[in-house]
Write a structure and sequence with these properties.
Number of domains: 3
Shape: elongated
CATH superfamily of the largest domain: Reverse transcriptase/Diguanylate cyclase domain
Structural class: alpha+beta
Radius of gyration: 31 Å
CATH architecture of the largest domain: 2-Layer Sandwich
CATH class of the largest domain: Alpha Beta
Order of helices and strands: HHHHHHHEHHEEHEEEHEH
Helix content: 55-70%
Number of helices: 12
Number of strands: 7
Strand content: 5-15%
């Protein structure tokens, strides 16, 4: 995919900076996505992908860039509020120090046995000092309460930004970045006994390119949203559902045997095939939308790449067998699980489509 991204940059005469390379990797991974369409629109209009344009695209479409910007803004706001709170605390500390000094002076005056007039003045002075201190304390309390409220608001905003950075905008499922992290967690061997079986399923909309070519990208997006909503229901926690890219999806199952996983995937495929979809704008029937799936149960010590490859091979087997079905990965016991490069998946997916 990296070589393809470099080739794509060279073809449209875009300088291969680090940011441009990252943008083109996302375009290659999701050629039907919002970023790819925006890039095509800009290039079609004769726009040059300058450094500023690349920054704008990253801010708008790359989850990490949006998150970093939001974290930066939240950090600046938090620093400002903490600075104001520190000033308020400093003022309160000064007022309390002055109050302590006045109390010490009053004690010395009382030790000197003042007359009635002096004692009256002393009481008045202490009253004024107490009033000033009380007022300063009230200001401090209000400032600290406002800062606490703002900190809670910023924490909520950052949590929302974190969720958005891990969510695919079109399908509302977890995105590729979040999926990669979840798959790594699934394949961590810390020496403890496994909590139970774990399975990875890969799913792909059959003949999706024909949907886009026949009905347009808006209808293609409608199909993706429908399939994603069905997958989301099947992949509710503790399962994990993600849009892997384009018309590809993934489901992670923990603690469920392969027989149950196969049943869930089979029901999911039947639900999608049984739904009569229509174009949202015209009401025209779209015909049958089907899904192919392949899954693999993780073996002890298996790496994310090896598990992905086995699930991918099972998905490929479903495609070759006629699509609209689920296939379980089978690995002979007399040979280790295969390991391949990430590029192998893209080659397989290109061969499967049609």
């Amino acid at each position: 995919m990296g070589r393809a991204a470099l080739g794509g940059l060279e073809k449209v005469r875009v300088w291969p900076t680090v940011l441009n390379f990252e943008l083109w990797l996302h375009v290659q991974a999701d050629p039907e996505g919002d970023l790819a369409r925006e890039v095509l629109t800009l290039l079609g209009a004769g726009e040059r992908i300058t450094d500023q344009v690349a920054e704008d695209l990253a801010q708008a479409y790359l989850p990490r860039a949006r998150l970093e910007a939001q974290v930066g803004e939240a950090g600046d706001a938090l620093s400002a509020h903490l600075g104001a709170a520190a000033e308020t605390l400093g003022a309160a500390q000064g007022a309390l120090g002055a109050f302590g000094t006045d109390l010490a002076r009053a004690r010395r005056q009382l030790d000197a046995r003042p007359d009635a007039a002096a004692l009256s003045r002393l009481v008045d002075d202490l009253g004024e000092t107490a009033d000033r201190t009380r007022a300063t304390t009230q200001v401090m309390e209000r400032s600290l309460a406002e800062s606490a409220t703002e900190v809670r608001r910023l924490r909520e905003a950052l949590e929302l930004a974190r969720q958005e950075a891990a969510t695919d905008g079109l399908s509302n499922l977890a995105n590729r970045r979040a999926f990669d992290e979840e798959l790594r967690r699934l394949c961590v061997d810390d020496g403890a006994a496994p909590a139970g079986p774990a399975c990875l399923a890969l799913l792909d909309i059959d003949h999706f390119k024909q949907v886009n070519d026949s009905w347009g990208h808006q209808t293609g997006d409608q199909v993706i949203r429908f399939v994603a909503s069905t997958i989301s229901k099947a992949g509710a926690p503790p399962r994990f559902a993600a849009r892997f890219g384009g018309d590809e999806f993934a489901l992670i199952f923990r603690g469920e045997p392969a027989s149950e996983v196969e049943g869930v995937l089979g029901g999911l495929i039947r639900d999608i095939a049984g739904h009569k979809m229509k174009r949202r704008d015209t009401g025209e029937p779209l015909g049958e939308v089907t899904l192919s799936a392949g899954f693999a149960e993780r073996r002890p010590g298996e790496t994310p790449a090896a598990l992905m490859e086995r699930a991918d091979q099972a998905l490929y087997a479903s495609k070759r067998a006629g699509r609209n079905r689920v296939t379980a990965a089978v690995v002979p016991l007399d040979r280790p699980a295969p390991t391949t490069s990430a590029g192998a998946r893209q080659r397989v997916l290109r061969a499967m489509r049609g």
